[in-house]
Amino acid sequence: MTEDMGKFKCKSCSKEMENEIFVLNMWVCPYCNYHHSINAGDRLRITVDENSFVEIGKNIDSIDFLNFYDTRAYSTRLKEAKLKTGMDEAIMVGEAKIEGIDVAIGIMNFGFMGGSMGSVVGEKIKILSDCSIEKKIPLVVFCASGGARMQEGAISLMQMAKTVSCINRVKENRIPYISVITNPTSGGVSASFATLADIIIAEPNSLFCFAGPRVIKQTIKKNPPSDFGSAERNLINGQIDMIVNRSDLKKILTSILELFR
Length: 261
Fold this sequence. Notes:
It contains nine helices and ten strands. By secondary structure, it is α/β, with parallel strands linked by helices. It has two domains: about 1-35, no CATH class; about 35-260, 2-enoyl-CoA Hydratase, Chain A, domain 1 (Alpha-Beta Complex), CATH 3.90.226.10. A seven-stranded mixed sheet has the order 4-5-6-7-8-9-10, sandwiched between helices. α5 (about 155-170) links the parallel β7 and β8. α4 (about 120-135) packs parallel to α5. It is globular and about 45 Å long.
């Protein structure tokens, strides 16, 4: 997606559109229906009722356990991600209403270090799950992640077990859990809380897999199918329950929540 004099070029079909049209269409190309990535704040605005979101689990910061350094120090990457996104981590969690229905909602932001799951993301999923159980309200999580956060080593991998345990407690309390897969969702997130939902919804053409096509090609030395990991292929194979356009998502979520209620 590129910007030129108030216009955007679709990264899929390369057609240009006015910025205003693009935003009004919820960051979806009106020509090819390509769903461009959006940040957590914008996702929140188009999903929940106005002024209904109350954030919980704030002011929890990641720690550089390993003094990790690749091309830059992990601590530097964290500072850059916070400045870039205006968020303290790769997920925001809280309570909100969707068409008047109370929910515990989490929204991941791929712009924060690729939505990677480290210790704080795992802890925020726990806090959100506890809120869902305590208030007896449905849990909704929008997933967008490249996987575990390598800068935290084994600590990041432990979050898979932690989040699975948290979601299992939600299910044991017979509370509905809906996950919404956005592009991309892979790695440790796809192998943990993203796939445990009662209902799994995906946006069109979202990549949803453990290892992406590039990694698969490097591993098996062959090209994977052109639609490998796509929402459409996952729907055919029963990995997800439905594919929903962004413009219809709030309406569909409302219908599902009403059904559970």
